[in-house]
Amino acid sequence: MNFLSFFSIPLDSVLLTIGDGCPLLEDIEFKGAFLVTDIGFTYLLKSHPKIKRFLVDNSPQLYLSTIQALNGLEFLTSLSLVNCSLLDDKGFFLSFFQTRKNSKLNKINNLALFSLCPKRLNELSFSDCSLITDQGILKLIEEKIIHSEITSLDLSGCPLLTNLILQQISLVGKKIQVFFSF
């Protein structure tokens, strides 16, 4: 089995079992995974380093450990974290980016910074993540999108974002499909 899709309410224990029993898993989709914690997500990601798609919708307990585990997924092409209410600039970006040493940016404690882990990543969604701000997405654009394979970015339903994001993406100089709403 290389595809896993949950449309019910999985628990951490289910993910631990799947992590042990499905060694070829490459595609993971969760909808309504509001009872799964970082323990389950992290175990599943770390036990399947060849994951290509990781899609999570409505998971309020997904946070730092899960994001850090994403750093090891070099084959990841699609990442969708929809309505993950704990994701913010500090949690997401500090964990999912590698900071530069001796950088002025390291002094900013709520941002992050340098490279979004997988080079192959081409679809990225933070739809309905209500705590992500312009500051974090601007860093993402500046440090990663310009130098990456990202062709689709979904920021719809992120109430703290402004049209400044669209202005900056238009300056990137490459075609990127952006989903954005105010």
Fold and architecture overview:
The protein is of the alpha/beta class and 182 residues long. The protein has helices spanning 12-21, 38-46, 64-70, 89-96, 134-143, 164-170, and strands spanning 3-6, 27-31, 53-57, 78-82, 123-125, 152-154, 177-179. A seven-stranded parallel sheet has the order 1-2-3-4-5-6-7, with no helix packed on it. Helix 2 (38-46) links the parallel strand 2 (27-31) and strand 3 (53-57). Helix 1 packs parallel to helix 2.
Topology:
Blueprint lengths: L2 E4 L5 H10 L5 E5 L6 H9 L6 E5 L6 H7 L7 E5 L6 H8 L26 E3 L8 H10 L8 E3 L9 H7 L6 E3 L3
Parallel strand pairs: 1-2, 2-3, 3-4, 4-5, 5-6, 6-7
Keyphrases for this structure?
globular; 182 residues; 7-stranded parallel beta sheet; 6 helices; alpha/beta
Kindly state the mean pLDDT as a whole number? 77
Evaluate the radius of gyration: 16 Å
Which strand order do you get reading across the main beta sheet?
1-2-3-4-5-6-7
Shape: globular
Q: What is the helix/strand order? A: EHEHEHEHEHEHE
Number of helices: 6
Strand content: 15-25%
Query: Major sheet: size, sense and barrel closure?
Result: 7 strands, parallel
Helical residue percent?
A: 25-40%
SS-derived structural category: alpha/beta
| Uncertain runs | 98-117
Amino- and carboxy-terminal Cα gap? 40 Å
Number of strands: 7
